[in-house]
What does this fold into?
Amino acid sequence: MKLYRYYLSTACILIVLLSLTLSACGDSASPVSASEPTTTGDTTTGVPVKVTITPAETASDDTITPTPLPKVAVVASGGFVINSSTIDASNSLIPQQYLDNARNLKILFNHQSVGYNVLEGLDALAQSNPDRYSLTTADVEQANWYLENNGVGGFTRGENENPASKVVGFKELFDNEGYADRVQVAMMKFCFVDNTSAASKIWENYRDGMNYLETKYPKVKFVWWTMPLITDGNQIRDQYNKLVRDYVKANNKILFDIADIESHEPSGKAVTNNNYPALFNNYSSDGGHLNEQGSQRVAQAWWWLTARLAGWNGITK
It folds into this structure.
């Protein structure tokens, strides 16, 4: 019996020692939360001892790559033209489903002041009819903006009165700054002050730059633009715009013909000055930049463009 008690006592001591060891090392069967304090007993005094376990240091947000938003497919495969006849002036012609798809495209837009007028028109439409025209627009500084956002990213690469610099700046966004893998649609426009040399020289530089980008980055849909107008008709702008239109038609490109939109009244009547197409007076307050009416009219055409890119066939009921 004494021997039995001796073994029993020894076994109890071993169990106690084992329990103490598990308490010190942590019992894998009952893990402790990394964010909550836990309490264990002091085996010598019986006084509770609070042990706080702090979570591991997390990585800085700067090292985390945002999860890309899903892309809406760019469905348009052939060429088409957006002009004064493709404007949803009643805000009812474009089916809602294509507007919803269009607002989720990732678009790069290189521009200057008239481009800001266009963006102001888009914002005004969104303010007046958010269910139909809500859209994210922003001046963008980093390609990763497109990972967390859909919509229109604005850029102002190049200098006014130096159209060649705008083509160079547009190309650099893709060649050197990482936007080719981020955007689905890209476009650049000249300003009305870029008629600084012969129309053929401006055109050849623009044509070569756009063809270079289309060839090198086939996954991006590039949209060609005419040059905006002022209220005084001008030969260089008119010649340049004719070169753009003829080439786009012959080569099945996509064209946003802002000059045609600006040079037609809402009724469809053509506006000329000095026998050349000219900006309709009611679309501008200073003879060149677009006012509220002008900017919203161009913005309505923009939605027609992007709805077509998102799969709409352009046929209205």
In short: The longest helix spans residues 2-25. Confidence is low (pLDDT under 50) at residues 1-65.
